[in-house]
From TrEMBL:
It comes from Eolophus roseicapilla. Residues 1-33 are annotated as: Disordered. Residues 314-407 form the Transglutaminase-like domain. GO terms for molecular function: metal ion binding; protein-glutamine gamma-glutamyltransferase activity. It comes from the Eukaryota. Keywords: Acetylation, Acyltransferase, Blood coagulation, Calcium, Cytoplasm, Hemostasis, Metal-binding, Secreted, Transferase, Zymogen. This is Coagulation factor XIII A chain. Binds 1 Ca(2+) ion per subunit.
Length: 735
């Protein structure tokens, strides 16, 4: 394609380098200028373009109720332009200035993307009008001809670039090519197509496609293994400007346009750009409980505010933790048409030296040495799975792939993770790209307790092989329940297959130290402990039980350490120390209660009301140590949401949010948020204070846009109390 360049255009051109004939084409935003008349040579004096076939108008059938958006499952996008999925037919109509005569007239379509369109890169696509459409290949065919207009069916390639294309109609004349003017109303977004068998993201189950592509709300499972909590998250992938914001992320990551048809590449660059480390990406993480300059991670109710703020400011949004990174990543993937789901791994290992073993060091009295212990077990960690084929791996490793936008470790020099095949992780084939060993360690590490004796020698006291990755879950298809997917990631604990998978992983370079020979535990005494369920602000107790299965009489010196922890398992401080001695009669059990008072923990509490208890006991007669650790989370009261009056699309409705302060202190600087995709954009209200035991009521009016079953999600945030949520399912009627 020739290009008319003015001196002004010359100035704007980026400098060329010796490696490329043209600069890299990695922005969907930028455009080139396309000539309206492209002459073949000298134009004769009498030439008048109006004598030839001329395009008067182009109809895109782009309204939500019209054929294109209906057939392509894009009618929910709040966007006035045409949005279609690749590898599937869509319709347009061209009005000419006179009837079209196929014998003499010749016209074609041109789709362009980016600043330097080239045919071999898939960024300049000329489409001639033919008689047949081949599935999954670019083509156009006239389906109807009447008066001055023609109706076309257009097929896009099933491997086509994802993004916003510009459309031109070109007409051939003996003296040159006449083109339509640049018209942004005919811009066409092309997305991934899980409904198309030739697409790399094809999914064959309609219910799964509805859940993993079209559902705009989801559930985040959090808490811990003994006390699973859930909250809703608004993905909002169809809300206004979100599609443009998601395309902007690929520009920000400088992904070449020619690579944007490949879900593997898109996931890999997106996992880096979702976090702000090393590339000024979307969300800045903060795990230190001080969120002075931004929003606390627990206060967000969905992805829309975050993406829109980033799209307008181009600066990282403060702050996120794992479920926020995963929630926004899920929005990005579903918005572009890649099936995706949010995963929670309970007791997730963050193994700093990737040796499949988390080292917990005890001092000579059996207390945890926090200076030496660098590894941590997260109460839970959220990541995403994206569905795609993996032509870069051997057969059998397609399907769900782990991608993780939370910045934990670097991969090829950047904070990113994935895509890693879930199937490869299960079978220990961690040699297959990308980042499989790290994910394998997150779900399979052993916890090793070792104690430094007075002479400086490290002795292994206990190995816990079952604590990490006990439970991996996601939201069920078509409902709000929990679906366990642990078996997708690992074989049954202790099975022959599990041992084989581990040996395979070790063979492929996952480091594992051998510890068996040095370690002889006390086998005839069992120790366990239970933490009573408690509401935030109340006292509760921890019960430690010993079972002496031997005929010997033992005495034990026991120590309980209570720590307030971040959900990442990193301790903030020890708020409870309690030592006691226990007499263990032969063949009997004994129980000991330790009371935890609210006054002991309230002043230091972190935003997820999360505790970690360590109990260690030394059997005095043998010198052996029993060690056990558990995390627990307090119950946090919920927000109540109610609606008044009838709920009809296009009519005003009223929503109230109520909350009663459960603490014995006044809550200060309280922020409430409320949102619901298709019902209301996020609303915020600040309250100076809520006195102890008093109730706050906030009423808002809104006009729901979309009929059908919808969800309202609310959160409350204050310095003394976080992770307060409420939700309500509503049914919006058609007008």
């Amino acid at each position: 394609m020739s290009e008319t360049t003015s001196t002004n255009e010359e100035k704007k051109k980026p400098p060329l380098n010796g490696r490329r004939a043209i600069p890299s084409n990695n922005s969907n935003e930028e455009e080139n200028e396309v000539p309206e008349i492209e002459a073949f040579g000298l134009i004769p004096r009498g030439f008048n373009p109006k004598d030839y076939l001329r395009v008067v108008d182009v109809h895109m059938f782009k309204e939500p109720h019209e054929i294109n958006k209906q057939q392509h499952h894009t009618d929910k996008y709040y966007n006035p332009k045409l949005i279609v999925r690749r590898g599937q037919i869509f319709q347009i109509q061209i009005d000419f200035n006179r009837p079209y005569r196929p014998e003499t007239d010749q016209f074609w379509l041109e789709y362009l993307i980016g600043r330097y369109p080239q045919q071999n890169k898939g960024t300049y696509i000329p489409i001639l009008v033919g008689n047949v459409l081949k599935p999954g290949e670019w083509g156009a065919k006239i389906t109807h001809k009447e008066n001055n207009f023609v109706r076309l069916s257009i097929m896009s390639s099933a491997t086509c670039i994802i993004g916003k294309f510009r459309l031109y109609v070109a007409v051939w004349t003996p003296f040159g090519i006449l083109r339509t003017q640049r018209n942004s109303a005919t811009d066409t977004y092309i997305l991934f197509n899980p409904w198309c068998q030739q697409d790399a993201v094809y999914m064959d189950d309609e219910k799964e496609r509805e859940e993993y592509v079209l559902n705009d709300v989801g559930i985040v499972f959090h808490g811990n293994i003994n006390d699973i909590k859930l909250r809703s998250w608004s993905y909002g992938q169809f809300e206004e400007d979100i599609l443009d914001a998601c395309l902007f992320l690929m520009d920000k990551a400088e992904l070449e346009l020619s690579g944007r048809g490949n879900p593997i590449k898109i996931c890999r660059v997106a996992s880096a750009v979702i976090n702000s480390r090393d590339d000024n990406g979307v969300i800045a993480g903060s795990w230190d409980n001080t969120y002075t300059y931004g929003v606390a991670p627990s206060a967000w109710t969905g992805s829309v505010d975050i993406l829109l703020e980033y799209y307008s400011s181009k600066q990282p949004v403060q702050y996120g933790q794992c479920w926020v990174f995963a929630g926004v990543f899920n929005t990005f993937l579903r918005c572009l048409g890649i099936p995706a789901r949010l995963i929670t791994n309970y007791s997730s290992a963050h193994d700093n030296n990737a040796n499949l073993q988390l080292d917990f060091f005890l001092d000579d009295e059996g207390k945890l040495d926090t200076k030496l212990t660098k590894d941590s077990v997260w109460n839970y960690h959220c990541w995403n799975e994206a569905w795609m084929t993996r032509p870069d791996l051997p057969v059998g490793f397609g399907g769900w792939q782990v991608v993780d936008g939370t910045p934990q470790e670097t991969s090829d020099g950047m904070y990113r993770c994935g895509p890693a095949s879930v199937q490869a992780i299960k079978h220990g084939h961690v040699c297959f790209q990308f980042d499989a060993p790290f994910v394998y360690a997150e779900v399979n590490s052993d916890i090793v307790f070792s104690r430094r004796q007075k002479n400086g020698i490290q002795v292994i006291e206990k190995i816990d092989t079952t604590h990490v990755g006990q439970l991996i879950v996601t939201k069920e298809v078509g409902g709000d329940g929990m679906m366990e997917i642990t078996e997708e990631y690992k074989f049954q604990e202790g099975s022959e297959e599990e041992r084989l998978a581990l040996e395979t992983a070790v063979m492929y370079g996952v480091k594992k130290q051998s510890t068996q020979d040095v370690y002889q535990p006390q086998t005839d005494v069992d120790m366990d402990f239970q933490v009573q369920k408690a509401v935030l602000g109340s006292d509760f107790k921890v019960t430690i039980t010993f079972r002496n299965r031997s005929r010997n009489y033992y005495t034990a010196t026991a120590y309980l350490s209570g720590n307030i922890v971040f959900y990442t398992g990193v301790a903030k401080n020890e708020f409870k120390k309690h030592s006691f001695s226990a007499k263990l009669e032969p063949s009997s059990s004994s129980a000991f209660d330790v009371v935890i008072k609210a006054s002991e923990y309230l002043s230091d509490l972190l935003d997820q009301a999360s505790f970690h208890f360590f109990v260690t006991a030394q059997i005095n007669e043998t010198g052996k140590i029993l060690a056990m650790q558990k995390a627990t989370v307090l119950e946090i009261p919920a927000l109540r949401i109610k609606t008044q009056g009838e709920l009809v699309a296009g009519k005003v409705m009223s929503v109230t949010v109520e909350f009663t302060n459960p603490l014995k202190q006044t809550l200060e600087n309280v922020t409430l948020r409320l949102e619901g995709p298709g019902v209301l954009r996020t609303m915020k209200k600040e309250f100076r204070q809520i006195p102890a035991n008093s109730t706050l009521i906030w009423e808002v009016k809104t006009i729901p846009r979309q009929p059908g079953s919808r969800k309202l999600i609310a959160s409350l945030d204050s310095n003394a109390l976080r992770h307060v949520y409420g939700e309500l399912n509503i049914q919006v009627q058609k007008p």
